[in-house]
Specification:
Blueprint (H helix, E strand, L loop, with lengths): L2 E5 L3 H12 L3 E6 L19 E2 L7 E2 L5 H6 L4 H10 L4 E4 L2 E4 L4 H14 L3 E4 L3 E7 L2 E6 L2 E5 L1 E4 L14 H8 L4 E7 L3 E3 L4 H4 L3 E10 L2 E12 L3 E3 L1 H15 L4 E6 L6 H14 L5 H4 L6 H11 L12 H12 L1 E8 L7 E6 L17 E3 L7 E2 L4 H17 L6
Parallel strand pairs: 1-2, 1-11, 2-7, 11-20
Antiparallel strand pairs: 3-6, 4-21, 5-6, 8-9, 9-10, 12-19, 13-16, 13-18, 14-15, 14-17, 15-16, 17-18
Helix pairs in contact: 1-12, 8-11, 10-11
Length: 409
Amino acid sequence: MRTVAVIGGGASGMMAAVTAASGGARVVILEHKDRIGKKILSTGNGRCNFTNIQQEPLCYHSENPLFPWRIIEKFDARAAVSFFLKLGIYSKNRNGYLYPNSDQASAVLDAFRMELDRLHVDIRTGIHVRKIQPGKKGFTIYTDNGQVRADKVILCTGSKAAPATGSDGSGYDLAKQAGHRLIPVLPALVQLRCSGNFFKAIAGVRVNGSVAVWAESECIAKDTGEIQLTDYGISGIPVFQVSRYASKLLYEKKEVSAVLDFMPDFTEEQTDAFLRARAKTRPEKPAEKFLIGLFHKKLSDLWIKLSGIPRDKKAGEFTEQEFGKLVCLIKQFEVPVTATNSYEQAQVCCGGVDTAEVDPETLESVYVPGLYFAGEILDVDGMCGGYNLQWAWASGHTAGEHACAAKSR
């Protein structure tokens, strides 16, 4: 019986372990935290959005853009639903976002724990791996607690995102020891820090709108949804969706700005006409009350201040220039992006082990036969909405399936 060592007991690691053990391998999980699966408990705000029905290649990002989809196609959302149903997790569909019917991320972790126990997977926690040494008869894994021998190794140590849950980037050193190159690892699905002395005045406001990341007069990425305004900048799912692009641009030392559109369903011409009609309906209304009922008062106050319109000026007396300023503030509110929040706040990272150095069919290292990769350690990151967990399931399943096979490449 072959022994497969899975280094890292997160989502991809548990999937890899279950798959390899189901294929007949003797499996040991080496996890450096005090328990496995800690990061799963925080996903989906504690409810675990474990996949998404809407799947397409553009949902996944990599320097090698075709790579993620080749793996997702092997184990898609339907396969994930079927897998979890066998483990006892009945899914709930919220507009394509799938959750456990219990709305508990802990249920997913418990289901994995029961399956790992059923398959007699040896789970060792508090184990810090320092070196993976390949040899003629498998691998010797050097840890702070002694050596572990294995025929195959699957590296599932995660990225640097949310290090308190175990993803502290330690696996990257192990990958580099094996000769692998890293695409720069940066925070993704994260808040953006922006300059502007007005952010404290609008902190706490949530508003539907679009956010676009710009650099060098080019729109790099754009998304729409509920934007959260904070005392340091911007947050919310649409901000998370574009944050990887801002992160990369900042790493490249480029000037980055975020352009917010607070009426994304209107063109600028329609917004202008709407505001003029609003002024005509109540021409006596003062500027300080002109936008009440349309936008949050904190935003209304800010825009009137930035437009330079006297607070007591009647709407019926607004000039062409003043209407133009309001339209520009509402439709093209531009703020410089100075940084992302740290790895501690990031949900995932972009970058990681270069996928050009990994077999796209098996996830085996092209340098070290018998060494496999799965999950966030690879240069693959997905959108918000269950895609990063789907990548974990798909890559973990592929690596586990091939690691328990009789032969490597």
